[in-house]
Each structure stands twice: as C-alpha cells, then as structure tokens.
Design brief:
alpha+beta, four-stranded antiparallel sheet
Length: about 180
C-alpha cells in the first residue's frame, strides 16, 4: 500500500511535473491510489480524491471518486480550462461542508471554490477528455489540482481569511475546535 505524505513534507509544496509517457508504472500507480482512497488501511473509504504527490510521486496525476455513479476517475495531466463565476462556500450540499485532506490530518476549513469547472485530461490509454463538472466533483478536482501546483487547502482557507479547525474526538461525537492563528 502507498504511504500518504503529510505536512510538513516539502514535496507537498512543489509543483508536479507532467507525465510524458503513460506506461505500466503510471497505470499501477493510479490503481494503487484508487485502492488507498477506497480501502484505506482498514478496508473503509478514507478519501474522495488523491494526487500522486500525496503518495510521494510529484507527477500530474490524480484520482477522484464520483459518488453519483460510484465510479473512480483517473486524470493524467489534468488542466482546468474554465471556472464558473458562481462560487461555493465549502461543500454546501453536504452534511459536513468542511474540506479536509489526507495530507493534513484532522484539520478542516471552509474553502470557496468555483461551483463548476471544465477540465481537460488524458485517461490511462492516452485518450484526451474534456468535461464539465459541478458541485462535489468540481470541488474535489480543484482541491487535487491545487496539490499538483503545490497548494494545500489550508493555504486557500487562510488566503480567503477563513478559519481552520482541528477535529477533536469526544465521548459522544467529534467536535471541530477553532485553531488560533
């Protein structure tokens, strides 16, 4: 199983390089990344997106779980080519609107992101795709593309003058505690 790189690792702040050749190594990496978010270490979904840099490979590769058709998307060399003017304030259509990250464990915050995007990418066969995404999947793709550019969601929260929270388990339920900056 791949190991998730966490802060303060310097690799998380570096821009990832484009993939020049989609070979068996890239295909295997993508499939292992899907296994990480799908099964975690205890066979439970632990994430909805993951970039290659988060597992120590600074390559422009990301995987995203789309809950509507319950499929996994693999995006090689993704590029967001259009962003809607309409913004979201966190994951406003979900019970838990806060964004989190496997590389920044137990920290959450509301991030303003574009409600819809258009992305271009290659699949593992090298075929070029262009598709419009909205809502949850658009948010995940933007989060993961930020990783490819060396940007963490915590930076977005602070740029937007938002609040970061630490998840604290209690006897009855988990509670978000504001982090003093």
């Amino acid at each position: 199983m791949l190991k998730i790189i966490t802060v303060p690792a310097a690799i998380l702040h570096k821009k990832s390089t484009p993939i020049k050749k989609i070979d068996q190594e890239i295909t295997t990496l993508a499939k292992k990344m899907i296994d990480v978010i799908r099964h975690g270490s205890e066979d439970q979904r632990i994430g909805v997106g993951l970039s290659a840099v988060q597992v120590g490979h600074p390559l422009r590769l990301l995987v995203v779980y789309d809950p509507e058709p319950q499929t996994n998307l693999i995006l090689v060399n993704p590029k967001i080519t259009w962003r809607s003017a309409k913004m979201t304030q966190g994951l406003d259509h979900r019970n838990f609107p806060y964004e989190g990250c496997l590389s920044v464990p137990q920290i959450f915050g509301l991030v303003k992101r574009h409600q819809a995007i258009k992305a271009h990418w290659q699949d593992l066969a090298g075929k070029i795709h262009a598709e419009k995404f909205s809502g949850f999947v658009a948010t995940v793709i933007q989060h993961e593309e930020d990783h490819l550019n060396g940007i963490l969601f915590t930076q977005r929260v602070l740029e937007q003058q938002g609040q970061l929270y630490r998840l604290e388990p209690t006897n009855n339920q988990d509670v978000l505690i504001p982090i003093k900056l």
